[in-house]
Amino acid sequence: MIHLKKILLLFIFSLFMASCYNVQRNCKDFKTGTFEYTYTLDGEEKTSTFFRNDTLEVDYYENGVDSSSIRWINDCEFIVEKINPTSLNDAKAVHMKILYTEGDTYTYEFSLVGDSANKYKGTVTKIE
Hints:
Layout: H1 2-20, E1 33-41, E2 44-52, E3 56-61, E4 64-74, E5 77-82, E6 94-102, E7 105-112, E8 120-126
Antiparallel strand pairs: 1-2, 1-8, 2-3, 3-4, 4-5, 5-6, 6-7, 7-8
Keywords: Signal
Organism: Galbibacter marinus
Protein name: DNA topoisomerase IV
């Protein structure tokens, strides 16, 4: 009987603690604007910016510009497809999912469409 009370008490405490922590997902705040992110290329850390509206994303990186179409699945998920891909690999669509938001940043997860086994994460900051 005492063992059952301890389990019940532990369950109630766990439920209480879980309800205190809510992941913030204000995804609508990040659908449009100018953003910045940092990535590593050949062991060197680089920063890139991009502009996004409801249907278009323009990425500015290392003296280059890349444009992609955006198709929103819901407020926190969208599909990105390059408008002028330069290779078959470049033509593959990418599924982006905003996991949580905090202030002017969001953490996201992405993978090639149809490849849910290989997911990657990153963080983006809204600068405008």
